[in-house]
């Protein structure tokens, strides 16, 4: 079966900008169609032009911006890396039901179970050439079935329909499935008939042997230690091709491991193993000479519905010395939504910087923020993006990757991360404390991202924590206690009410996967155009400053005014435009 690996691609080149027309027209051609949007962009660019060198276009490679609409996809789905095999839709739909938590799992009915197992059988026999079931899908699906049988509560164990379907198909499947999949489906020989392979299976290499040993515990519903998780990850990642269609480690085993750990609900020790496993992958972490640095941990799979504000918030906060490091990927499953990488690439920025180059941009007063792609910052984790699409549900890495520290600071360090699902607020804060930063903040923003909303909460809002729920820790003004790492902190929990801060309740602008629309909204706001996008950028910049305890942010009203001034003066837009230019010049 074809590999799910994501092949590395070369960094984006820069084309010349000689003979380019004026700056006003260039940016509009990259971010808008039609009269209204073009006018908004022109006002923004006029402000930025006042504070930038006239030659910035040639130096930054304006041809990239000028041809943005023609060369870059305008919809987030289009950024899915070419060459990745698509998962089988029938099995993927079943994975969404059975590869999740003890309470969330929805057992398959008999008809669906029959259809899924028939699809797997025909694929294993080579009959589905156009849409085969991948090795990763087999590993994830059967891991889900095994964990449910071994450790889930009765309500989410196998249904009668699933049992009947398996009794019918397993005698045929056992003759065509590879040994590692038969191991995953019945590791101890207690679930299926003819279960002789599982108890005897040890793997095909040293790395696989360690993975199989850990998997036995995971498939039984158990947990691993910190060192065990780190050891497995370092043994098997990056997943490397040994031929066109095979890898050093079975993708079935790796997929089973990743989804199995998430189904069992990772312990703090396991999450720390994922979070810290590759800290030293590229050598010593660069240290930026800045007074304050905030690490932004947006969900890597992006936004599919609402305006994503963090890129523009970073430009605002950079205006008053709050350096910001963004990190992520251009495209990530399962949502495959709008990301900072897509927006920066669309505008012509270099999105393939090394951590050392990011350090330089953080220190540059003309920029003051930076974006790092996982491809450069942590190649082992980048190597399994394709595999993650085929396991369907988010693995533990979806949590731990938001708490990375690819660059350190000589001054104060803070972390911000978005979350949605109940149960991940405290683990994220735990990981931040493990990073020994001075302040940490988790936000339940819209779509589980970082963007807080100005929309008033409905009386019929869904149960659970509301949007704009924030919790975290920060270094207190008066030190009365200390922690093991030597940094004293105080905790807080708050629900941000935008109306109490003077904001009008407005609907969040919808972007519906349109990178173009998200950029149009953000650039119009940075040009000073008032409205929902402007308000959200101001709210998110100021609240992060205030809640993290940043310098000059004790009073929330003056902090909001500071964010507005950064926009209305044109400084924030200039920072963003400067970043596009400077990102191509750092060495």
From TrEMBL:
Gene Ontology molecular-function annotations: glycosyltransferase activity; GMP synthase activity
Phylogenetic placement of the source organism: Eukaryota, Viridiplantae, Streptophyta, Embryophyta, Tracheophyta
Assigned keywords, A-Z: Glycosyltransferase, Transferase
Statement: the UniProt record of this protein carries the keyword Glycosyltransferase: yes
Superkingdom as given in the UniProt entry: Eukaryota
Stretches the record annotates as Disordered: 1-21
Name the UniProt record assigns to this protein: Glycosyl transferase family 3 domain-containing protein
GO terms for cellular component: cytosol
SUPFAM superfamilies xrefs: Nucleoside phosphorylase/phosphoribosyltransferase catalytic domain, Nucleoside phosphorylase/phosphoribosyltransferase N-terminal domain
UniProt feature coiled coil, ranges: none
